[in-house]
Design brief:
Rossmann fold, alpha/beta
């Protein structure tokens, strides 16, 4: 039986998951592939710590270049994450005519175009299914499930930490900081959770999905990114009163000649299936002009779900090797010569509905004053809730608007926040109305 030699760089949580899958499911893999997958090397700075999986000592090394320069290694699996030295390792492997599998969403979001161009120049393959959605096969779905569609939009929950926090806040009425501590204790959030809760992780993932969906070079720096730390139980309760739940959504849409790419807390209707995706699960919906809406739901992180996605790429590339073909599908689905520079729509130019909460003095005429300012900026009110007396005579005044331009809303809020009857900065959450974004 033929063998495909693998070199694994990064023996952390996901790396250990990959090794466990290789060992535990060796038989079924061989029956599906018709060849053996031979883990020839594992490189990591720490080769002493027990990962809970058994490996031979002679395949462990601290030097990644042992793998990168070994002519017998067919596929390099990069699982160290971050920008450097991961970028250097991947480019070195590709230039040495080695195929690469990576879960590195941060690197692909930032330097993906350079890496994909290097793939094409060197006649090798790259797999990155594990970079978005953990075990959810979203990359392969876009590239091979919907290739005849004009993708209209992709949106979803792509960060399990934030979804866990918002779900617990919604279901148990706890504060953000209280639930964050629980999430850290359970291992659902890092000791330094900023990458997740500030929306950065989600921004990396939606950048990759937008590039795939639209054949576009997407500048990560232009992706509007907002986290969840400002979400409070009071806003969650008001959302419920209006018939919504709050989720951190990553959204990309084609709007004329531009695309929207953004990450922010979003109110979605309770009848929308994505509002009921709770805990650490991810959910991603792809809408194509021919196929309509398709939603994929599953575990977005963890050693085995992510390891499963890594191994799906390893098997796909191994099949290509065995059949003497590479680049069967272009890394970004579109052929390299058709990848375009597409303008990303500024957040100030988007049109949305809005939830706005003001902290105002409890006196007559406040609503008419605020609605007058909104009207002067072409913003109409869909509904209003004002209940409960706050401290020092203050009350929350909550509005839901009809569709409005973000720039107009921001100008109006800047003006309203300066009024004598308003004693705190207004809170804004975008609303995606209807059953779909």
């Amino acid at each position: 039986m033929k063998s495909i030699n693998l070199g694994l760089i990064g023996f952390g949580t996901v790396g250990a998951g990959v090794v466990k899958i290789l060992r535990q499911n060796e038989g079924i893999i061989e029956r599906k592939l018709g060849a053996k997958l031979n883990l020839k090397w594992i490189a990591d700075l720490d080769i002493e710590r027990d990962r809970g999986v058994k490996v031979e000592k002679n395949i462990l090394t601290k030097d990644a270049y042992v793998i990168l320069n070994d002519p017998s290694v067919d596929i390099v699996i990069e699982l160290i994450g971050g920008y450097e030295p991961a970028r250097t390792f991947i480019l070195h492997a590709l230039k040495n005519k080695k195929h690469v599998v990576t879960a590195n969403k941060a690197l692909l979001a930032k330097d993906g175009i350079e890496i994909f161009e290097t793939v094409s120049r060197n006649g090798v393959d790259i797999g990155f299914e594990a970079s978005v959605g953990g075990g959810i096969p979203i990359i392969r779905s876009i590239k091979e499930g919907f290739p005849a569609n004009n993708i209209q939009s992709i949106y979803g929950i792509v960060n399990g930490t934030c979804n866990y926090i918002l779900s617990k806040m919604s279901d148990e009425g706890k504060s953000f900081h209280e639930v964050l501590k629980e999430a850290q204790a359970l291992g659902f959030a890092e000791a330094n959770p900023n990458f997740d809760i500030d929306g950065i992780d989600s921004a990396h993932k939606i950048t990759i999905l937008a590039s795939l969906a639209f054949g576009a070079r997407v500048d990560l720096e232009k992706v509007y990114t907002e986290g969840i730390s400002m979400i409070t139980p009071i806003d969650i309760n008001f959302a419920r009163d209006f018939g919504y739940r709050i989720k951190l959504l990553a959204i990309t849409k084609r709007v004329g000649s531009e695309i929207e790419v953004r990450v922010h807390p979003t109110m979605v209707r309770e009848e929308n299936p994505i509002s009921r995706v709770n805990g650490v699960l991810n959910a991603i919906e792809v809408t194509g002009d021919m196929v309509g809406e398709n939603m994929l739901i599953g575990k977005g992180a963890g050693a085995l779900p992510t390891g499963s996605a890594v191994m799906s790429d390893v098997l796909e590339i191994s099949r290509n090797i065995l059949n003497g073909g590479v680049n069967r599908v272009s890394p970004l689905s579109f052929l390299p010569r058709y990848i375009e520079d597409v303008k990303i729509k500024s957040i100030r130019d988007i049109v949305s509905e809005y939830y706005i909460r003001f902290s105002v003095l409890d006196k007559p005429g406040v609503l008419s004053t605020i609605s007058g300012v909104l009207g002067n900026h072409s913003i109409s009110i869909a509904s209003v809730i004002q209940k409960g007396r706050g401290e020092k005579g203050g009350v929350p005044l909550v509005l839901m608007t009809h569709s409005a331009k973000e720039e107009d809303v921001q100008h109006a809020l800047s003006e309203i926040d300066k009024l004598d009857v308003v004693f705190d900065k207004s809170v804004l959450i975008r609303v995606e109305n209807g059953e779909r974004v």
